[in-house]
Amino acid sequence: MIHATLIPRNKLLDSEARQEIKKYGVCFLFGINEDKAKPIAYIGETDDCFKRLKDHNRQKEFSNYAIAITSKSEIFTKSHVKFLEYYCVKTAKEVGRYDLENLTVPTREHISESMEADLHDNFETMKILLSTLGFPIFEEIRNAETTSKEILHCKGKNALAQGELSDDGFVVFKGSKANIEETKTAGERVLGVRNKLKENNIIQLQNDVYIFTEDYLFGSPSAAAAAVLGRRANGWTEWKNKDKKTIDEIYRII
Length: 254
Prior knowledge:
This protein is α+β, with helices and mostly antiparallel strands. It contains 7 helices and 12 strands. Helix 2 packs across helix 3 (113-132). The protein is elongated.
């Protein structure tokens, strides 16, 4: 069994007495960069999570929270945590929900098949614990091909986007089209979000529209609609299903 310890950055030194973080484990750092369209994360293995986090506290400016993943039964060795580091970085990069500070995927540790099977079980538990703590770094954003939820549409002058409500906000699907032009009354918040999307290549100019290059999670339907339409928007009325019912009509509590 594994243990997850959440440590706010300003409480790091207060956690020194916690013995469960002074052993082999995988450390996660989470934070926000105002210039990035996605939250930021860093993943690293260590033989002493607390010591490693103290080093990161001096070197990595972006993080606000750390999570130390360790073994309750203290079965983790260097081989265990090196394999978990490799698998966590690889999976996080494939999912693409966070921008990783890890520039490359670590080398895969060669371990026995039985050990690998056990570590995959550990990973699934880590995935659940991290999501429960508010950091769904390994949770895939569903797309139009795999979703079982109702697909919603947002249309504008040249915009034609598809998406769905999610537990975390609203997902606009890869391939969706967004207006190039922004209205004079769009406001700084809408312009700021769209600029981040452009600067981080989440949307790219193709012919007379911006195209979403990947599934992207917005905090709300309104934020998603505003990014697609280039203006202030009420997402609860802009997003509609195939029967032209708005989200407000579909989910309204009568």
